């Protein structure tokens, strides 16, 4: 692997991908602020974990961060009631909940440059024993990024309590999840995940605050400020944002 390969995408492409991700996240946040906050927490924790454990590096690590930000994009087509569904929703809601990874991929596939994110996003609810969704794949057939996101997505939903009322304590959540190692979660990840959470080793650290990505952080601040002020108009937005608006409009009818 060359130095260029190890560093991942070029700065210009990386900035473009990140700006688009933040635009999408801003639109999700306009639908439900809790959804945006959840995605940001999952992205930061998952990327910091993968980096500290040496599981991913360079472009693959940054793709995991972006996939974390965008893993719930499919909820743009969901009703507010669906966003409040419990972790184990009733049958009627479960069918709709299980659509969101596919809907997210359908939206994001309209933007060239996000190809590496589509697998982790589509499969972030697959279970290690094959009982997950949307495709029922199992074991190491599930992309590593998706296995990591699944762990952190589930942990955040247990502890934040945004959709279930009172969140579990760290100890309660870890105990519940560890019991599911080998069934719901990759057993090779779980002991490392538990140690990472218990050590509080960068769980809440902003992944973009690191020195080598400071230029991206500055870019994000500017793009979000312009978006919030209405200074970015549709002709300046990439196709994925048009698609996001189309899905959002269609489910509002």
Description:
With 253 residues, this protein is mainly α. The protein has one domain: Hypothetical protein af1432, CATH 1.10.3210. 61% of the residues lie in helices and 0% in strands. The chain contains 13 helices and no strands. The longest helix is centred in the N-terminal third of the chain and has 21 residues, at 11-31. It is globular and about 40 Å long. Residues 1-8 and 232-236 have low confidence and may be disordered.
SSE pattern: HHHHHHHHHHHHH
- Overall structural class, as computed from helix and strand content, comes to mainly alpha
Query: Do you know the CATH architecture?
Result: Orthogonal Bundle
Task: Count the E strands.
Answer: 0
Nearest-integer average pLDDT: 81
Q: Please outline the major beta sheet.
A: none
Low-pLDDT segments: 1-8, 232-236
Percentage beta strand: under 5%
Count of DSSP-assigned helices? 13
Question: Helix coverage percent of residues?
Answer: 55-70%
Q: How many angstroms separate the termini?
A: 50 Å
Radius of gyration: 17 Å
What overall form do the CA principal axes indicate?
globular
Q: How many domains?
A: 1
CATH homologous superfamily heading: Hypothetical protein af1432
Q: Provide the CATH top-level class.
A: Mainly Alpha
Briefly note the CATH topology name.
Hypothetical protein af1432
Keywords:
mainly alpha, Hypothetical protein af1432, 13 helices, 61% helix, disordered N terminus
């Amino acid at each position: 692997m060359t130095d260029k390969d190890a560093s991942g995408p070029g700065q210009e492409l990386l900035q473009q991908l990140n700006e688009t991700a933040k635009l999408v996240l801003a639109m999700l946040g306009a639908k439900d602020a809790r959804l945006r906050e959840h995605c940001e927490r999952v992205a930061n924790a998952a990327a910091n974990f993968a980096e500290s454990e040496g599981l991913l590096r360079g472009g693959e690590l940054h793709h995991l961060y972006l996939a974390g930000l965008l893993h719930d994009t499919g909820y743009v087509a969901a009703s507010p009631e669906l966003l409040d569904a419990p972790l184990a929703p009733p049958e009627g809601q479960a069918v709709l909940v299980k659509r969101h990874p596919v809907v997210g991929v359908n939206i994001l596939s309209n933007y060239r440059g996000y190809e590496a994110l589509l697998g982790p996003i589509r499969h972030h609810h697959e279970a290690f024993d094959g009982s997950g969704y949307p495709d029922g794949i199992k074991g190491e057939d599930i992309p590593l990024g998706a296995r990591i996101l699944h762990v952190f997505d589930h942990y955040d939903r247990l502890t934040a309590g945004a959709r279930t009322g009172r969140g579990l304590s760290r100890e309660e959540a870890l105990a519940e999840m560890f019991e599911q190692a080998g069934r719901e979660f990759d057993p090779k990840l779980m002991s490392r995940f538990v140690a990472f959470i218990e050590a509080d080793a960068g769980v809440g650290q902003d992944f973009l605050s690191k020195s080598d990505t400071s230029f991206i952080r500055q870019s994000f601040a500017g793009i979000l400020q312009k978006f919030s002020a209405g200074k970015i108009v549709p002709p300046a937005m990439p196709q994925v944002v048009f698609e996001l608006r189309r899905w959002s409009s269609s489910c509002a009818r």
